[in-house]
Amino acid sequence: MTAALTVVVGGGGVGKTTTSAALALAHARRGRRTLVVTVDPARRLADALGVQIGIEACPVRIGDVELWARMPDSRGSVDLFATWLFDDPAARARVFSNRMYAELANSLSGVHELISVAFIDHELGSGRFDEVVLDTAPSRHALEFLDYPARLARMLEARTLEWMVGLARLAGAAVEDRPDARGLLAWGRQRVGHLVSNLLGAEAARDVAALFGEFLLVREKWLGLVRNVERRISHASTRYVVVTGCSGSSLDDAAYLVAALAQRSTRATALLLNRAVRAAPEWLGAAATPGTPASLAEAVEAYRAEYSARAEQTTHALGRVRALLPPRTEIGVLPALKSSDPRAILEALSVELAALPSLAG
Amino acid sequence: MLGPSQPVVFVTGKGGVGKSSVAAALARAEADRGGRAILVEMEEASGATRAISAEPDGVRVVIVEYLEALARTIAEMLGSGLLAKVILKQRALRKIVQAVPAVREIVALDRLRLLRAEAPSARVFVDLPATGHAIDWLRVPLVAERFLRVGPAARMCRAIQDELLPAARSGIVVVSTAEPVVAAETRELVGRLGSELGRVPDLLVVNRVPRRPTAEELSSARALAGRDARLAPLADALAQDAELGADAVDALASLAGLGGARVARVPELFRDPSPRELARHLEVGA
Q1: Does A303 touch chain B if contact means CB atoms closer than 8 Å?
Q2: Among the four residues A163, B95, B135, B260, which has the most C-beta atoms within 10 Å?
Q3: Per the domain annotation, does B136 fall within a domain?
Q4: Residue A249 and residue B151: Cβ atoms within 8 Å?
Q5: In the A/B pair of chains, how many CB contacts fall below 8 A?
Q6: 236-265 of A, contacting B, C-beta below 8 A
Q7: What is the pLDDT of residue A194?
Q8: Which residues neighbour A35 within 8 Å (Cβ) at sequence distance 6 or greater?
């Protein structure tokens, strides 16, 4: 029995990480063994949970429930992944001493997303959890990383590799299993290979080609991971949650992500409009009377302006959310919560989320 | 002048802090003072385009498409557009390029370098993507050159560093909010800018600074609530906002003068301001 996956996506600053942690808390309250994972290098998840979390899953106690959190970040998790992928010690040593791996592995976009996918696949199948909630990077690319292993796998196709082997040979690398280069196509590829090798410089081309060679050797393991991930992201139990704020740009991001999900022949399970203000609170009416002392006039006016601007923005946002929503997607309206205590917000949001049938069922 | 005076201005910061709006406001201000302004954003984003669309006159918007930028870069390196086309026709190579990290960043920065050369009198305002640390974007040419060492691609990385990244060539605007978590991340970002790129921000924008209730407001609200129970929530709201306001003041203090940067604060408006309105706030708040 593998765990159910919930993928939380949305633009920057919409409260995605807090929402993910709150959703995990709601699952944990229902007695589900829950892991929340963030791929955002930011420390928001740790901050929301009020604990230090690391590259291994660690337990977090909130009130009387326990959940697990994991943040695959840092060089350590890149090496952990490479150790898993290359289980032959000699190959591992070659990879770790490859200059491309050493210089670039930790500093490049895409790498953390990639290893997160691998970790999640591992945790989903581990039997330790019933629910895994994945908080993604604050980007429209958030869904792309799910395709990333497949994109890399396409790169490991025979033709691409033949090409890399040619490049490596040009650069003078010792590559075994050289396919015979024959015919016009091979000749053309060789010409292009020369050009690319010249552009990159022989040494770099050799390192690049050698690293690809290593990937070729673990191709089957890689393709296994790709198959697992692909099965998982299209599985009926996998939920996609799009979080948006009320601002125009976060709604643009939400619209983009809803469309991107539809393109992947899946759909958003729920769209959460976060920090919504439906109406000015009642006390504001009572405060805005002639009896209120002049010393409070400015504060009351500031609140009036705040609530009217936010309610107007929320009304407009709700209209847009309804217009872009595919059928069978639930809308959740989450209230704007003010608190200087992140855990108080977490607790309050988890109660709101537990009331949404599409997420808590 | 509003913001940095260099020909290229990188606007960076965590997602959701209003980075795109600030980039648009700076471009707007440049056009309004009679300059030529180019507002740049990457193909996956739309925030800057959206923000400037409210007042678009005289601002040229350039959206960097990675594959197109790659073709230009290769053409420039080879001195031949035709050869670049041949190379990019290789389906296998296109796949490699789309999957290999850092290629996007490098070709996008090189596109900016070429844009500079095409329009030397214009000022270019770049809305950097928020994914991860935006600083990774600016570090990529450095890291890649260290790896490549020699050859045209290494020289291109060198050219980006020489022509785009020195303090005389480009300004850096860091956008933050006054929330404690965001301020902590901003401090980390500014620290890395200094230690890894040897740069300090030219301008630090603290966006959405909340109103902080005064002590007098707090005490009169409490007194009022004692007489009229319906007004207890007003006292509670003020007390809550006073706490958040105090957090914001601490966060602001921790950001003030970071790396010697000029600080501009923009009040919380609870809506998206237009570029001109935001530009006015940037001026007043500086």
Answers
A1: yes
A2: A163
A3: yes
A4: no
A5: 202
A6: 245, 247-250, 252, 256
A7: 75
A8: A3, A24, A57, A67, A68, A69, A70, A123, A128, A129, A131, A132, A133
> Above 50 in pLDDT, residue A182?
no
**Are A194 and A280 found together in one domain?**
no
Chain A residues touching residue B44 (CB < 8 angstroms) = 139-141
| Tally of domains in chain A | 2
CB contacts of A103 in chain B (<8 Å) are 143, 146-147
What mean pLDDT is reported for chain A? 82
Tell me the mean pLDDT in the region B218-245.
92
Q: What does the pLDDT average to over A283-306?
A: 89
* CB atoms closer than 10 angstroms to residue A324: 18
The answer to whether position B2 is within a domain reads no
Instruction: Name the band, by pLDDT with cuts 50, 70 and 90, for residue B131.
Output: low
**A183 and A256 co-located in one domain:** no
- Given a contact cutoff of 8 angstroms between Cβ atoms, the answer to whether A4 and A239 are in contact is yes
Residue A3 token pair: 């765990």
- Check residue B79 and give its pLDDT: 82
Backbone φ, ψ for residue B208 (5° rounding): 55, 50
Q: What is the pLDDT of residue A255?
A: 93
Residues A10 and A97 in one domain: no
Pairwise CA distance, residues B126 & A270, whole Å: 34
Residue B221 structural domain: 8-284
| pLDDT value of position A341 | 84
Q: What is the CATH number of the domain that holds A63?
A: 3.40.50.300
pLDDT tens-digit readout, A66-91 = 999 887 665 677 888 888 889 999 99
Reported ipTM: the value is 0.87
- With contacts defined as CB-CB under 8 Å, which chain B residues touch A298? 217
SS3 B11: strand
A340 contacts B44? CB cut-off 8 A: no
Residue B1 lies in a domain: no
Does A189 contact B90 at a Cβ distance shorter than 8 Å? yes
Asked, for residue A36, whether it belongs to a domain, the answer is yes
Full domain range(s) for residue A48: 4-74+110-149+238-360
- Residue located via tokens 């902590």: B184
In a domain, B170, yes or no: yes
Kindly report the CATH number assigned to the domain that includes residue B146. 3.40.50.300
Residues 14-53 on A with a CB inside 8 Å of B are: 14, 40-44, 47
Flag whether A228 is in a domain: no
Residues A204 and A290 in one domain: no
Average pLDDT over residues A193-217: 80
Nearest by CB to B133, from A41, A296, A310: name it: A41
Q: Does A66 touch chain B (CB under 8 A)?
A: no
Residue from B131, B175, B179 to probe the interface with A (highest A Cβ count within 10 Å): B131
Q: What is the DSSP letter of A222?
A: H
Domain end call among A171, A195, A222: A222
What residues of chain A, 193 to 232, have a C-beta less than 8 Å from chain B? 195-196, 198-204, 207
CA dist A78 and B194 (Å) reads 25
| Partner residue facing A283 (CB), from B136, B234, B270 | B234
pLDDT tens, A120-130?
888 888 899 99
DSSP A290: T
| DSSP at B266 | E
Q: In this model, does residue A160 exceed pLDDT 70?
A: no
Q: Give the rounded percent of residues in chain A with a pLDDT score beyond 90.
A: 35
pLDDT of A109: 56
Q: Are residues A94 and A125 in the same domain?
A: no
